Amino acid sequence: MSQLQRLVIVESQVKGSIVALSSEQQHYLQRVLRLKNGDRFIALDGKGQTWAAILESDQATLIESIHASSELTVSVTLMLALPKTGFDDVVRQVTELGVSCIVPVISDRTLLNPSGNKLDRWRRIAQEAAEQSERQIVPTILEPLPFKTALDLQADSKYLCAERGSSQHLLNCELGKSVMIAIGCEGGWTAQEIELAIAKQYQPVTLGKRILRAVTAPVTALSLIAGMVESRAASED
Amino acid sequence: MSQLQRLVIVESQVKGSIVALSSEQQHYLQRVLRLKNGDRFIALDGKGQTWAAILESDQATLIESIHASSELTVSVTLMLALPKTGFDDVVRQVTELGVSCIVPVISDRTLLNPSGNKLDRWRRIAQEAAEQSERQIVPTILEPLPFKTALDLQADSKYLCAERGSSQHLLNCELGKSVMIAIGCEGGWTAQEIELAIAKQYQPVTLGKRILRAVTAPVTALSLIAGMVESRAASED
Questions:
Q1: What's the top EC group for this one (chains A, B) (predicted)?
Q2: Does B133 touch chain A (CB under 8 A)?
Q3: Which terminal residue of chain A, N or C, has fewer Cβ atoms less than 10 Å from its own Cβ?
Q4: Which superfamily is assigned to B75-236 in CATH?
């Protein structure tokens, strides 16, 4: 199936096995991807359901449900203090790596106060990246929250990336069924933020001895978490 | 020392403990970083030696050698089929993550034939990224090689990232003292390239179930290798 193009649809478009395509979706399938009537593509509802579909002009027919999953068996939420630049790339890359939810936070060192347009843009990027990386789920991106508020979000395992130093390496940590990983922006977290997080059961972890930029650290963290989940599953097979 | 600014110098600039600064270096220290005479910075020779240094107008004095190392204890060479775009970002990010050497290769699916200017640019980026990530070593970037030639480079452990499928996960592999990791460009390696690599003792590995873009895969691979080296060292302490 990996050669087929992918399109995210929403539930309200589906009646039985027929999907009413929006004009943007028709344009994308027919003009951008150059599919013709009768050609197949993959339709995803962005919540884990996937179908093989056939294009028929302004609609498509869902012909069979597909069960192969490229999703992580652990739900991973990335809490990220908004960096000055590069957030688009972070959204794209962590989506490729399997993130479930992204929570942009305003930390003491955040300089940016993003507009609503940015949020729409990030959600579009997440959808594109989910399609391209052949995921079944489009990650949720929450509206930016103050760091203190975001600390109340629930997860089985909660980690905060601290700068180098003596913290445990993320690869040596245990992962529950839901994982929260919090990463600072340029300059990292303030001492007060680290204390607040520890009081909320966050464990400080390190990603290695070198200083990673704010746009590299989230990609590294997601690479490690996805690797831990998938390599363990493979070695248990 | 983490607050001090860093500058890469070359051996020929050093006489005893005095470094003759080039006019670009003077500009960088005095104008860009706004250091004044008498201010300290870190000088690196890019080959593993590091000193505390004091700025004195058009020269600097090396006052002491620094032994703290943020380098990986394993030498990692990234062999990367040149992607259509984004190689600058890859060089920057894998340098942050501790790569020792980058070998750009021309593969069957490479569309780009880079100019010599590009090589200079990549080397500048690697130097900047080594300084910013507080490394002692500036990674070597070789001139682009044909894939077949690059396969003859030596390493203890040689891995080739294959698309998903049934290969072993990189995190479940063993690392020797020198590691070579080969990553394809858009579209991955051809079947013939994979066969050639296997004949040269490369083991195909997977980075996970999702399709990673050519610019994300190297960052993921280096994150995993650095994590394997540093988490094992930490758990043996």
A1: transferase
A2: yes
A3: C
A4: SPOUT methyltransferase, trefoil knot domain (3.40.1280.10)
